[in-house]
Structures are given as C-alpha cells and as structure tokens.
Amino acid sequence: MEQLNKKETSLILRTCAADLTSRGGFQWPDVGGIVEVPDWKPTDECGNGAHGWLYGQGDHSCSSYLDSTAKWLVVEVESDSIVMLGGKCKFPKGIVRFVGDKRAATQYLIEHEPRAREVAVIGITVTVGDSQSAIGGALSMLTGGDRSTLTGGNRSTLTGGYGSTLTGGDRSTLTGGNRSTLTGGDDSTLTGGYGSTLTGGDRSTLTGGDDSTLTGGDDSTLTGGYGSTLTGGDDSTLTGGDDSELRIRYWDNKANRYRTVIAYVGEDGIEANVAYRLDDNRKFVKVEES
Description:
The protein is mainly beta.
C-alpha cells in the first residue's frame, strides 16, 4: 500500500462527480492512488489546492457534488500541509484511502480517524442505543433509543425514543418519543410525544402530544394534545386539545413592541381540535378548510 512520509497524517472527507472528477475537470484517482495539485499555494484562500472537510466536519454547501450519484472520498494527508479555510480545508497532496457512497465513506472515516468521532461529520448515519449520544453534521441521519441525545446539522433527520433530546438544523425532520425535547430550525418538521417540548423556527410544523409545549415562528403550524400550550408567530395556525392554551405573537408597529393574543380552549367559543389563526383585527378565527 502506498505510504506518505513518516509524519502525522489526518483523514479528509470530500465528494466528487460519479466519474471522480471535480471542478475544472480535475481527475481524482481511485483507492490507493496519489492526488497531487500542480499549482499548489499554501495561502489561506480558496483555490491552488485540493479541497475537503478535515475529519469530515465543515460546510457542506462548499461542494457541488451531493446528489445520489456523487462519490465520497476519504483522503489521507500530512497534517502539517493542511490549510484551514473556514468550513473546509485545502492540501497539496494525499492518498485516496476510500471511494464509495456517503454512508460507507463516513463509516470508514469514523473507524479510521479517531478525531472524527468528536465532531459533527457531514452525511453520517448513526444509530445509538438507550441513553447514548450522537452528533451528526449536515445531511446526517441519526437514530437513538430512549433518553438519547441527538444533534444534527441542516437537513438532518433525527429520530429519538422516549425522553430523548433532539436538536436539528434548518429544514430538519425530528421525531421524539414521550417527554422528548426537540429544537428545530426554520422549515423543520417536529413530532413529539406526550409531555414533549418542541421549538421550531419560522414555517415549522410541530405536533405534540398531551401536555406539550410548542413554540413556532411566523407561518408555523402547531398541533397539541390535551392541556398543551402552543405559541406561534404571525400567520401561524394553532390546533389544541381540551384545556389547551393558544398564543399567537405579533409585532405592534404603533407601540413598537411584540404583543401576544391568548385564547383558551373551552372558553369564548374556542373549540378543541379545531385550527385557529388571527384575523386582521387580531381575533382568533377558525381556519377555513380548502
């Protein structure tokens, strides 16, 4: 097997097109091959080097090759030659140690690079048991048992059992068991069981069981069971079970402050399991079915 000089090395994750080419038609070798950049410059600027994510951590949007046909590579590089660029790194030379799909490449990285086990690896798939923790970067899929703690980046999918704590980035999908705590970014979809606490960003969709506390940003859709407390921003739609409390927060331009309109299921005509929003007069009204 081809070896680098006897120096400390690090593993770097990157992606390429299906034919192992990257920007400008640069051709990457297959497993065991040496990649070397002829115009290398050790500057802290993009270009003049081969690029990737050190230990698999970084900004996934730096890559143009993230579809189902992309090849995921793990490259061994001399550590002292790596230049960090913020969200990615570059290097002059390395040996390709693995080529495959996203799941297999990230698994290889975790098995062969101990430092990758302490960071949010892009695209990783992790399944942990009860009371265990998992961290994943963007595009990750994390599944945990009861009382697990799962943390995923943008567009991650997180599924936790009873009493889990899940934190997902923008556009994440989170599913937690009873008494879970879920926090999702903008456009997230969160589903929590009995007694859950769910917090979603703007345009999120949150569904909580009995006694849940749900907080969504503007344009959110929140559905809670018996005794839930639901808080949404402007243009949100809230549906609560018996004895639930509905809150919609809006900006009062005249007073230059936020105000909250509160309604109680079972009072003033507010019905259980019926969707409500605020009208132009800041009054709760039923959402008409389309």
